[in-house]
Amino acid sequence: MTKQTKITVASIVFLLVAITDIYAVIIQNKSLEFIFKPLLMTTLVIVYLLSVKKANFWLVSALFFSFWGDVFLLDKTNYFVFGLGSFLIAHIMYIKMTTKFLKTASIVKILKTSIVFVALFSVVLFLIKDNLGEMLVPVIVYGIAISTFGTCTLLNYLQEKSTANTWLLLGSILFIASDSLIALNNFYSPKHFFDIAIITLYVVSQYLIVKAVILKKV
Questions:
Q1: Would you list the domain boundaries of the chain?
Q2: Per-residue confidence band for 218, with pLDDT thresholds at 50, 70 and 90
Q3: pTM, full prediction
Q4: What span, in angstroms and rounded, lies between the C-alpha atoms of 77 and 90?
Q5: How far is it, in rounded angstroms, from Cα 95 to Cα 59?
Q6: Distance of CA 199 to the CA centre of its chain
Q7: Which positions ≥6 away from 167 have C-beta within 8 Å?
Q8: Res 217 pLDDT > 90
Q9: What is the DSSP string of 73-110?
Q10: Higher model confidence: residue 21 or residue 216?
Q11: How many Å is the Cα radius of gyration of the chain?
């Protein structure tokens, strides 16, 4: 079996796992979710490792902690904080990875670039703050992390408008959108539609980030 064939097969498996998990969320089948959600990052990391000669430590680490975030959030009642913590570390790994791509930027440019992400986080925080209770500080820390990740990917795109950087930026935006909907779903107005949008945006975002790094060959 050639390398390209292996990549194609692994990609198809990831796609099937993603579709099945999204379907499980749509029909609210928790048993199916418990089987397929942990396979999302497992199959995606296989696609990545088959596609590169040398793995990017920060990307693999981010996928590893995303895996644990997925597992913990299968039981949001008891393990939400652990899921949040796992995804916080995953975002820190993504930030570290993206900063490796960046050239020096002025403080003014960084602040200007961050405005859209800080504004989005501020709106979400305003809507959910009254329902956060003891989760206020963890959510603020998490919001700062995802805003920083978005800022880094936008700076990276503005520095070089390549296909890889476009995918990385889009991946981070979709990830932030997914996280924002999680916040609204848990602390503002729970809706089944949010559950479907969250998993769909999450799967696409992670795939785009991985494809971007594969294209960068770093």
A1: 3-216
A2: low
A3: 0.93
A4: 21
A5: 10
A6: 10
A7: 208, 209, 211, 212, 215
A8: no
A9: GGGHHHHHHHHHHHHHHHHHHHHHHHHTTPPP--HHHH
A10: 21
A11: 17
